[in-house]
Specification:
Layout (H helix, E strand, L loop, with lengths): L2 E5 L2 E3 L5 E8 L6 E8 L6 E6 L6 E3 L7 E6 L4 E6 L8 E9 L14 E2 L3 E5 L2
């Protein structure tokens, strides 16, 4: 059974950091593009960052550029989202998602992905 599990969320003050992990089981991430998304109460799910299957290409939402980084360790079947200089507007449930991508394509659009984790809560408060 294909499964993605996010971890690493929590409470943090503005300016703090968190690292989110997305661990896959039941399949090998090597051939999958991975995206990170977030959803705040009353808002639509938005793309935060994504990484190609090889890890050589990444993309970020303008709101997190320069603060977040994404990486993957295919040997550990895990993708990471390092979040620095967190702001209250970063608060939300963070999800990782996967799609098999043989051509190296990746996207910040949630509709592109077909496997989703259950999410982890990130709260940035003063």
């Amino acid at each position: 059974q294909l499964q993605l599990v996010e971890s690493g969320g929590g409470l943090v003050q503005p300016g703090g950091s968190l690292r989110l992990d997305c661990a896959a089981s039941g399949f090998t991430l090597n051939y999958y593009a991975i995206g990170w998304f977030r959803q705040a109460p009353g808002k639509e799910r938005e793309g935060v960052s994504c990484i190609s299957s090889s890890g050589t290409r990444t993309n970020f939402a303008d709101s997190v550029k320069g603060r977040f980084t994404i990486s993957r360790d295919n040997a550990k079947n895990t993708v990471y989202l390092q979040m620095n200089s967190l702001k209250p507007e970063d608060t939300g449930v963070y999800y990782c998602a996967a799609v098999r991508s043989s051509n190296g394509y990746y996207s910040l659009s949630p509709s592109y992905y077909n496997y989703w984790g259950q999410g982890t809560q990130v709260t940035v408060f003063s």
